[in-house]
Amino acid sequence: PKLSGADIRxxxxxxxxxxxxxxxxxxxxIPSDPTVLLTIAGMLQFKPIFLGQAPRSVSRATTxxxxxRVSDIENIGVTxxxxxxxxxxxxxxxxxxxxxxxxxxxxxxxxxxxxIPEERIWVSVYKDDEEAAALxxxxxxxxxxxxxxxxxxxxxxxxxxxxxxxxxxxxYYDFKPELGPAGASLEDxxxxxxxxxxxxxxxxxxxxxxxxxxxxxxxxxxxGLERVAQILQQVPNxxxxxxxxxxxxAAAKLAGLDYHSADAHxxxxxxxxxxxxxxxxxxxxxxxxxxxxxxxxxxRRLIRRIVMKGRLLGIGxxxxxxxxxxxxxxxxxxxxxxxxxxxxxxxxxxxxREETKFGSTLEAGRKRLEAMLEDAAAQRNGSSTxxxxxxxxxxxYDTYGYPLELTQELAAEEGVSVDEVSFERELQSQKKRSxxxxxxxxxTAGRLLGELAGQLGxxxxxxxxxxxxxxxxx
Length: 474
Ligand code: ATP
Ligand code: MG
Ligand code: MG
Ligand code: MG
Description:
The chain is 46% helix and 16% strand. The chain is α/β, with parallel strands linked by helices. Residues 154, 194 line the site of one magnesium ion. Catalyzes the attachment of alanine to tRNA(Ala) in a two-step reaction: alanine is first activated by ATP to form Ala-AMP and then transferred to the acceptor end of tRNA(Ala). Also edits incorrectly charged tRNA(Ala) via its editing domain.
């Protein structure tokens, strides 16, 4: 029988408990660390211990941590393995064991406890970490032909521009072992998936970029629960695991679709809805409210993205999506965070309110567009062409959430075109303004916000599908 997501979570935590780790609560998605917008990894709550700024209460801990990585937003539904919201299982050593034990335990967990076949596993180590390479060979007999050396980008882990960091060693699963080791690249994600990262946390990066040794040598790890579920449940992507599929299926049902027979584009939209639904439910549960700033802005854009994807799939404006999707997420939440079920009413109410608000915005946009079309028609004055200025189309996009393609299509029905070139100019100058505004914000938070401005701000509505919103907007 295949392991469920809940089984995998429990096996991980129980295994590390049996190895002397204390099972601890994951932290809130709202970090106490002011340099990070949202919790992006299990280590964040332990950062003060790694830095020697807080005493350790135990020497070994294990957790499951809710994470949100807004920086992965453009991968959602595009890669099989990325989410904005995911669960990271972790084992931690605070100045206790180091590389040798971390490698031995990760191997035992992966092969014996979870039952991943040894010959399917590949390992990467940091390019000059000879010690880790030797330990993989000597401690678990790992073959050199599946051990790869990677550079700073993949195998030197840091939670931000400054702070604790170190070389890491990642474990990958091979979907196509029949291709053999010759010429294989771990970057080929049709063949490999990274599932476990062991960070040998021994340095602290200062504001000037230099590395100083930490007082203790620590272990920080992260295993993606949804990815391990994909591997063990033998499904083609994380979305089809028992951890997420019920949410995707609920979105499909709202849209009158069958996920498995829907085309790839619609499947992507359904995956985005499933992914973002988890993110927004957990964010609201942890106390984030929609707003135009920081975390609240992230939340608002994610909710709007869900609603817009739903509209584009043909879900009528009289039909709410958030309450249905939120109920699914809540029903699946127990093992990850029991507080979610306790907050259910508040979560559903808050999400419903925001959906209603966005619905009114879309409706106001429709009225604004009608006025623009009347103006354009009046100015036609006998000549055969009329157009909407880029600035006006940009207003519809920026204030009312209308993708350019939608404006173009609605305008075309009245024989009116849209000035695309000047729309693009408006868009670029807005991006420039938000980049400048972000320069003053702290590096880490600033980077995340910058990515968000670049990604949500401009590709927010990229999933537009020809015609499907028209019935709604007209
Ligand atoms: P990738 O290279 O696939 O983007 P990563 O190297 O950025 O992953 P880490 O920072 O090492 O990921 O995080 C530890 C583990 O958390 C990963 O090995 C993976 O299993 C999981 N993980 C990371 N990012 C995501 C995500 N966006 N969605 C789901 N799981 C993730
Ligand atoms: Mg990544
Ligand atoms: Mg990686
Ligand atoms: Mg990694």
